[in-house]
Amino acid sequence: MSGSRQGGRRDAGERADLARTVAFDALRAVNDDEAYANLVLPELLRERGVNARDAAFATELTYGTLRSTGTYDQIVQTCAGRSLADLDPPVIDALRLGAHQLLSTRVPPHAAVSTTVDLVRTHVHEGAAKFANAVLRRVGEQDLDGWAEQLAPPRETDLAGYLAFRHGHPAWIVRAFSDALRGDAEALEAALIADNEPAPVALAVRPGRGDVEELVSAGAQPARWSPYGATLVSGDPGKLAAVRAGRAGVQDEGSQLVTVALSRVEISGPDERWLDMCAGPGGKAALLAGLTAGPGAQLLAVEKHEHRARLVEQALRGDPGEHEVLVADATDPPWPEEDFDRVLLDAPCTGLGALRRRPEARWRRQSADVGPLRRLQISLLDAGIRSVRPGGIVAYVTCSPHLAETVTVVDDVLKSRGDAERVDARPYLPGVPDLGDGPDVQLWPHVHGTDAMYLALLRRK
Questions:
Q1: Of all helices (H) and strands (E), which one includes residue 91?
Q2: Nearest-angstrom CA–CA distance, 326 and 299
Q3: What GO molecular-function term can you cite, just one (predicted)?
Q4: Which entry of 194, 204, 345, 399 is annotated as an active-site residue?
Q5: Rounded CA separation 288/276 (Å)
Q6: Is 79 marked active-site?
Q7: Does residue 219 come out as left (phi exceeding 0), alpha (psi in the -120 to 50 range) or beta?
Q8: What order do you get walking across the sheet with 201-205 strand by strand?
């Protein structure tokens, strides 16, 4: 009996070590190879046959460590007494992983330290393992609040700096969120907290090909506001028959709402030619294709990059309509002006609205990225207005709340052209609460439970 119990404990320990090893390898891929956690982690879990319980632990370790990398780096550097630049990258990732377990999980401190030291011993060498042991013991001398009191700027004099440390965001992003929230400190902190909560798996059916009831019967819950959406509480969406057959796909509810809003705006005259200017990877295009109005209606889905265009083709495969995918640069359109009735421009952006899904993005993006993206957004929106006929509608969408990528882009384009005007977007998101003063809409994770999608609707005069 005693031997059996010891074996059970040993097996449990081995499973926990497997979860930590997978998390460590995912961190190495993200930080050394610039992989994306949402792609590399599921692949590692499948390759190594990790069971559901340990997969959940590995996911929490990976995503939690990535979310607060900047905070953990400050703490680790303080405890190491040297710059992180002087350490081997595998040691840095292991120390981040250990710090996360010590400061943000219920893992017992001795387990957090010993298992991390084992990782360093296995992947680096004994000397590095002894160093990691010493550093992590210092990390564990205080909780996260204690480290914030020691290392973060005072909340009273530098709110952005304090919240950046406490909630694992670069200070420039915190300031951008604060600007978008009009300086509301309570809403700002709520937004940062929501960014660190795991995002649910959101699904969207392809109109004309699938229905929400099929997803619900497979265990999903209906979305709150999107008539085409559902939320998968647990499990792999790729195992759902509707997803495998292309009747549904993974798509945030906010992304669904802004797409559907374009289809709901009243226009006079023909309503047959729709354009998706930046269509890759195809989720919005697939939704639009099912929403195109009337017989003979057609969607042109444009994507600059061939590999992403292939994803759009795959998403549209099986749609009963006649739709076209074109590889082209939408800033220099090969189609005539005033050729479309409705235009969707989901512009390339910093992606700050989806940080809960892509935790590593907050540390990869820099404030210097905003300027070039803004210039591209202005160029694309100008092309989008030229592409729509008088009386037609353009939806300008970004997955970012940064004012330099949202309201001010629209302001500048409208001032420079004079032949388009804003349409109040709020009536076209029926039932969605707290949409602000309009006419544009900014969704938020902490308010709406969606990605922070921005929508402006413009009518060509």
A1: helix 89-104
A2: 11
A3: RNA methyltransferase activity
A4: 399
A5: 8
A6: no
A7: left
A8: 221-222, 229-232, 201-205, 248-250
Residue keyed to tokens 């999107």: 226
Tokens of 105: 């999980």
Query: What integer pLDDT is reported at residue 13 of this predicted model?
Result: 42
Strand partners, 422: 458
Known binding positions for S-adenosyl-L-methionine = 278-284, 303, 329, 346
| Binding-site residues from annotation | 278-284, 303, 329, 346
Domain residue ranges of the chain, discontinuous segments joined by +: 2-139, 160-195, 201-250, 253-460
Cα end-to-end distance, the chain, whole Å:
82
Query: Looking at the domain covering 201-250, what would its CATH class be?
Result: alpha beta
Find the angle CA(25)-CA(29)-CA(33) to the nearest 5 degrees: 155
Triad 380, 269, 274: Cα angle to 5°: 35
Predicted TM-score (pTM) of this structure: 0.93
In one-letter notation, the amino acid at residue 213 is: E
**Residue among 137, 166, 136, 140 nearest 151 (CA):** 166
Task: Name the phi and psi angles at 153, rounded to 5.
Answer: -60, 155
Average pLDDT, the chain: 94
Homologous superfamily (CATH) of 2-139 is NusB-like (1.10.940.10)
Q: Provide the pLDDT for residue 10.
A: 35
